[in-house]
Specification:
The structure holds 3 protein chains of 3 kinds.
Chain A: E1 2-7, H1 11-22, E2 28-31, E3 47-49, H2 51-54, E4 58-59, H3 60-73, E5 78-79, E6 83-87, E7 92-97, E8 101-112, E9 116-118, E10 127-128, E11 134-136, H4 137-147, E12 149-150, E13 154-158, H5 162-173, E14 177-183, H6 192-199, E15 206-208, E16 210-216, E17 223-228, E18 241-244, E19 247-250, E20 254-256, H7 259-263, E21 288-290, H8 301-319, E22 329-333, E23 337-341, E24 344-345, E25 351-357, E26 361-370, E27 373-383, E28 389-393, E29 403-410
Parallel strand pairs in A: 1-2, 1-8, 2-5, 8-21, 10-16, 11-19, 13-14, 13-19, 14-15, 22-29
Antiparallel strand pairs in A: 3-4, 6-7, 7-8, 9-20, 16-17, 17-18, 22-24, 23-25, 25-28, 26-27, 26-29
Helix pairs in contact in A: 1-3, 1-8, 4-5, 5-6
Chain B: E1 2-6, E2 15-21, E3 24-29, H1 34-45, E4 48-49, E5 52-56, E6 62-67, E7 71-72, H2 76-85, E8 97-102, E9 105-109
Antiparallel strand pairs in B: 1-2, 2-3, 4-7, 5-6, 6-9, 8-9
Chain C: E1 2-7, H1 11-20, E2 27-30, E3 47-48, H2 59-78, E4 82-83, E5 87-91, H3 94-110, E6 116-119, H4 120-126, E7 136-140, E8 144-146, H5 148-161, E9 165-167, E10 174-178, E11 181-185, E12 190-198, H6 204-210, E13 219-228, E14 239-242, E15 252-255, E16 261-264, E17 268-269, H7 280-293, E18 302-312, E19 319-324, E20 327-331, H8 337-354, H9 374-377, H10 380-389, E21 396-398, E22 403-404, H11 405-412, H12 421-428, H13 441-452, E23 471-472
Parallel strand pairs in C: 1-2, 1-12, 2-9, 5-14, 12-20
Antiparallel strand pairs in C: 3-8, 4-8, 5-7, 6-7, 10-11, 11-12, 13-16, 13-17, 13-18, 15-16, 19-20, 21-22
The chains are: A alpha/beta, B alpha+beta, C alpha+beta.
Chain lengths: 413, 114, 476
Amino acid sequence: MTDLVIIGGGPAGMSAALAAYEQGIRDILILERDSSLGGILQQCIHNGFGLHKFGEELTGPEYAWRYEEKVRALNIPCKLNTMVLDISDQKVITATNREDGIFQIRARAIILAMGCRERPRGALNIAGARPAGIFSAGTAQKLINMEGYLPGKEVVILGSGDIGLIMARRMTLEGAKVHAVCELMPYSGGLARNIQQCLHDFEIPLKLSHTVVEIHGRERLEGVTIAKVGGDRRPIPGTEEHIPCDTLLLSVGLIPENEISKSAGIDLDPITGGAVVDQDRQTSCQGIFACGNVLHVHDLVDYVSDEAELAGKSAAAYLQGASAPACSISLKTGNLVRYTVPQVITEKKPVTVYFRVADVRRKVQVQVWSKDRLLYSKKKASVAPGEMEALALSAEILDDVTALTISIKEEQA
Amino acid sequence: MNRELTCIICPLGCNIKVRHENGAVLEVSGNTCPRGKTYAITECTTPMRTLTSSVRCKGGKLLSVKTDRPIPKEKWMEAMAIVNRQHPALPIAVGDVIIEDVFGANIVATKNID
Amino acid sequence: MFDVAIIGAGVVGGMIARELAAYDLKICILEKENDVAMGATKANSAIVHAGFDAKCGSLKARLNVEGSKKMAQVASELGVKYQNNGSLVIGFDEADREALQELLERGNQNGVEGLRLLEQEEVLAMEPNLSSAVTCALYAPTGAIICPYELTVAAIGNAMDNGAELKRNFKVTAIGQEDDHYILFSSMDSVRARYIVNAAGVYSDQIAALAGDESFKITPRRGEYILLDKECGGLVKNTIFRTPSAKGKGILVSPTVDGNLLTGPTAVNIEDKTDKTTTAEGLAQVMKEAIENVPSIPYGKSITSFCGLRAAGDTGDFIINSPRPGFINAAGIESPGLSASPAIARMVKDLLAEQGLELNEKTNYNPLRPAMHHFRETSLEEKNAIIQKDPAYGQIICRCEGITEGEIRAAIRTEPKPMDLDGIKRRTRAQMGRCQGGFCSPLILKILAEELHLPIEKITKSGGASRMIAKAIKED
């Protein structure tokens, strides 16, 4: 029996482990599938991490090292190269590695911190051939930054999420020519700084409201046909343009990796793809917590660390015999709000609610409603789907309500 | 001449307008903090960036590196050529200087390799 | 000198090779691609049809029923997954009901066992996710599913274990004759054989023409498919067909033996024998028609789409004959070719024997091949015993499908050896899960390069010029 098993040794897992340790939990085990701690940060060699957390710009490996250093100093046990195969609803974890073979651990509490994966081409059903040279942006990032191989020389990128933008710059610096970044939506899903520093700096065109409609080439990719899309996001006939290229990178979305959460019977939110959690990041299974990109895809790693600290503290409180839920207030999504985290509040204390919007809007009000009663309203200059919004709720707001709706009021022009 | 910039100093991403003539900045507006103004002026005169990349160590492993301060944007490709030729010996720790004085900055390791 | 040269390492060529490998013969299989199972075998519906479709008395009807009856045993000998899940042909109106009645009668005449017409209530009880507009269905309990490339890899592997040779990247460009044998030429090489079997799929008309037989033409018929996540594999239990109509056989919805959900195919005749592109219209048609049958298919969970070319002959039936002494066609093998393949192999063997090929049974013939998926299906204790001997079995490479380094290395060391990334995929399922190789392909590249003693830059996705990597960087 282990007090706390943390699945995933990336930024979320390490931060959760440190927070639980700080609260007095000593019997901790981190299970990490890769050969080192740090998760996806190891291949994110660009800078821009840590502005909130450390007040300086760090690269991914440096940000990871800040945490790994502490994990090592505290001698928190980790099993590397270890893949978790299953979690039962009784909190029995089945995992495998070279040294131990397939083994089981019974945990008193579990923190899920497995991160996310990229949506593959198949999810898009782009027509055409199936040649070599089509990579998800993260796979190309791994090949270039971790293995030292350039996957191709003439590149088109579909999707302007941050990984796509970062890879446009990386591939250019490593000697490839990036011909265009196509984005289906009329706005980019990436951070403004990345559009400036990764595209504008290198005069790489960002083609908004464009998509790849056909892939050409039998053996290696020879080109793509792109087209403009209308308001319905469907290609507009007659706007097709052929771009010769040997590489297509896809940066078309991230999906929390919750396959093993399902085996434990944890309730998932169909919008986030992550677990349904309360304000402490506890899932529908008592004693199982979730944080980081396995819970919902974050825009900044700094917020992952914050959330993981919360999950780590909560898991510690649970192990130390915290009291049972005091209430159950469900958080609902209103106008333009895609999802909230947490989805439910079980204790009347100040809570920060994170949410994402479905579309870009300027001059809005973030509102909190209980039925038809407006409880809170705050002006905001703009909201965008690429950025996670935070909303601090006071304990008073939670008095006498059973459900709250978070909603965006669009100011009339 | 006018130029519009998205400030990248913090995630707020202010839209900054710069009026400049003959390389001299006349007016900056739209920024919410003084750092934004400094950024806008530098950006329109000598844009600076921190370069991140990797070097192949002796033995073949890749080491991620960065310039320890921003270097002029237009020197990036030259800096990359210098970085790509370097093959340091292991072990290396975060912060170790791998190459000195590349356009005014040191190239330093951003991870540990034993 | 070989006794028999088989042109084409698809399921037909593979099953013929295995059938002949039981006898004291020198056999070689000539394949123009970098791997086996690269033509129609790679991309089809993966169904073992019951046999009610084909016209009574046709080769298709006879060989389908015979093949489908043999398939369970073949699969078990070769360690290949096979699932007798049953088939349902669903109808929506009176015209469909009449057509199903006809199919039932035809099936009975063809010798298909257990066919039954079901009424709405029974159909929906069996398959609750079908459209509630379904009024009736033809149920074929002998319908089954199998993985066609797994079957082919295993059949060829088993033939090779019993002495057959496989020559890859051998595209037959000319066929000559000398004394009592043929000479098959590729651009680089040549092979001598007393007998030739033409199992060249969409190219079988061209191969026949090289031997002077221009009696038939093969038209590639494009079929597009969409494959969905394993989460969706349980949506139906049976393979769901639409009642065939003037518009064709329609789009099927079927579980696969690996637990995914497969929908497709379209059916469009094309000219280009190499054009395996999917089209926006085709994929849209697959989704539209599949949803008419099973409305809740969540296409947001698609993991890949692909296109196969069926080798449609112009005679209306399989073309299995001998246009000249010592040369056998096994051509025009479109649906139900996979189902019929064990019977086609038997028939080709008989034709060869009629032509004078002596068939003496090998004393040391082994019909069995260990299952490639053995590790996944063994008990925890056995797995740990294997890991203790070879720790690579403890290291997961493909997260989505749970495939270990040990399984991948074993696959690379087992005939017919995979020489490229897609070859690994077809043998182990690594890269075939929901992330489609996003995480594991860089790892598999390294393993493949190591096992094949090649630099990574030379490793291909699928042979030829399909290299994965442009160049190594930072090596100046």
